[in-house]
Amino acid sequence: HTYSVFGIEEQVTWEYVRLIATKTGWGRGWQAQVVAAVAAVIVLLGAPYSIRLRMWGPGLVGLGVAGTLPLTGHAVAEVTPWIGVTLQCIHVTAVGLWIGTLIVTLIVTRSTRGDTNAEGMFTRAIQMFSPLAVGAVSALAVTGLITSWIYLDTFSSLWSIGYGRVLSAKVLLFGATGAIGAYNWKRLKPALGTPGSSVALRRNARVELILASVVLAVTAVLVVLPHTSM
């Protein structure tokens, strides 16, 4: 980030780095992110030793990470930054609830083949996960739509500028990921308990996670692009 401010022809010194990290709006946002990340590591390391920490800690530090993540991106550059930050916070939290919970669900119920109790545990976990996923995906779609409307000057920006083209790719990939999730929810979840149903749902869920990983990779490119024509 220091190079992006001072240019690659300028000799970047530790003094420049210190100025960027401590004396700028970006630096203050970065400091908040560091604090949230360190708190998350401490909570996750301590969770096995404290029931109370295990129950409340991960959720609280997760919100902290989600709340600080927009502080170094496009959200704080808007005329009304609190709107952008709020939208991005909801967006990031929804991603974590959807994809993060799906990952955990697959991990903790990974051994179900031929085990009746494990199959029942998997079915119950999916039943609890489904309404959470529906709500999270809905929040993602709404906040993504509002954010795109704020950032893009015209509809044609979706294909006329780099930010718009990458955003269009993200939307298409998100749609494909959501379609697989919807199929799992409407067709495979009701069939749980029948032969082969959990295997099929797990297979589709893995594809859903792979596509979601690609969406995250595209998002990593998107957040560093200018959302106006240069």
Mean pLDDT, rounded to whole units? 87
Radius of gyration over all CA atoms, rounded: 21 Å
- Could you describe the largest sheet, including whether it forms a barrel? none
Helix/strand-derived category reads mainly alpha
Total helices: the number is: 9
Order of helices and strands: HHHHHHHHH
Shape: globular
The number of distinct β-strands equals 0
User: Which percent bin holds the helix content?
Assistant: over 70%
- Could you list the spans in which at least 5 consecutive residues all have pLDDT below 50? none
What's the layout of helices and strands?
Blueprint: H1 2-6, H2 14-23, H3 25-46, H4 51-68, H5 81-108, H6 116-151, H7 157-160, H8 162-188, H9 197-222
Quick summary:
The protein has 230 residues and is mostly helical. Helix content is 77%, strand content 0%.
What characteristics describe this protein?
mainly alpha, 230 residues
Structure description:
It contains nine helices and no strands. The chain is mainly α and 230 residues long. The model has no long low-confidence stretch (mean pLDDT 87).
